Structures are given as C-alpha cells and as structure tokens.
Amino acid sequence: MPLLPRKGVLAIAAVIDIALNARGRPVAAKALAGRHHLPPRHLEPVLQALVREGILKGIRGPRDGYELAKEQGKITADQILRAAGAAEEGAEGPLADSALLSKVVVPALAQAEKAFSTALSRISVADLTHSAEGLRKTGT
Questions:
Q1: Alpha carbons 140 and 83: distance in angstroms, whole number
Q2: pLDDT average, residue stretch 74-102
Q3: Count of alpha carbons within 13 Å of 60, Cβ hemisphere only?
Q4: Which of 38, 57, 58, 90 is disulfide-compatible with 33, CB 3.0–4.6 A?
Q5: Percent of the chain topping pLDDT 70
Q6: DSSP 3-state of 67
Q7: Cross-strand partners of 58
Q8: How big, in percent rounded to 5, are the helix, strand and coil portions of the chain?
Q9: Which residues of 15-45 are buried (b: 16+ CB within 10 A; e: fewer)?
C-alpha cells in the first residue's frame, strides 16, 4: 500500500528531472512529460502548483519551461509533496462527522503524518539529484 499519492511521486520526479536537465535553460513541460511517459496535460497542474508554492519558476517565451526557484538544498521532498497535494485539494469530500473519527482516527493519523513529514523534510532535492546522477554514470 503506497503512502504517497501518485501525483506527489510524479511531482518529486519532475523537480529532480528539472534539477538534472535545466543546465541554464528552462525544461519544457513536453520534454519532461515525454521522459516520464506522461501526457503533458497530466503533468501541467502539478507543475503549476509547484510554481505557486515557489518551488519552480515558470518561464514564458519561445524557450518556455520550468526551472528551480531556489537552490536544490533548500527544497525538500516534504515541500514538494505539500505543493502537489495543494493541486488536489477539494477533490475529496469531507470526512464523516463521528466521535471515532474526530477523537481517535484523525489524531492518530495526524501524529503519523507529522512523523512522516519530518522524515521527508530531511530529504532535499540536492540529495536526490546526487543519487540520480549516479544513474547516469551506470547508464540505467
């Protein structure tokens, strides 16, 4: 059972891809989507959410695309997941109003989410980019 939503995982992959491939010029959404075998329209809402949260910068013009809005070491997996989650907010209805949910289930899960978030905040884009560069060296 995956703990992370698919869009969150894609958002992390997109940010790492941009960190690896920007090289002084923006990464086009179409190229990014192509490398991950996705239709561009599927990735665009996630990229826009990352721009709104200040993780990416959207560049307009003939060479439009995306680049990191701040240093790799200052962007965490937790920030990316939260931004990707903002793109999905409102997609689900409210939870039922019951004592079991409000007094037991939600507080227990909130505590677990906080621990998970703390762990994710220790993983930076710089860390993941460093790992991804190792893939290039091995050719996988």
A1: 29
A2: 78
A3: 2
A4: 38
A5: 88
A6: strand
A7: 66
A8: 60, 10, 30
A9: bbbbbbbbeeebbbbeebbeeeebeeeebbe
133 pLDDT tier (thresholds 50, 70, 90): confident
pLDDT for res 138: 63
For 22-31, the pLDDT digits (tens) are: 888 999 999 9
59 beta partners: 65
Provide the token pair at 19: 């960190």
Considering the entire predicted model, what is its pTM?
0.83
Report in angstroms the alpha-carbon separations of 112 from 29, 45, 117, 129: 34, 28, 9, 27
What 3-state class would DSSP assign to 92? coil
How far apart are the C-alpha atoms of 136 and 140, rounded to whole Å?
Answer: 6
Report the phi/psi class of residue 42: left, alpha or beta, with left for phi > 0 and alpha for psi in -120 to 50: alpha
18 φ, ψ (degrees, to nearest 5): -65, -40
Query: What is the arithmetic mean of pLDDT over 57-77?
Result: 93
**Position 86, amino acid:** A
Is the Cβ–Cβ distance between 120 and 11 less than 8 Å? no
Residue count of the chain? 140
* Residue pointed to by tokens 């958002």: 11
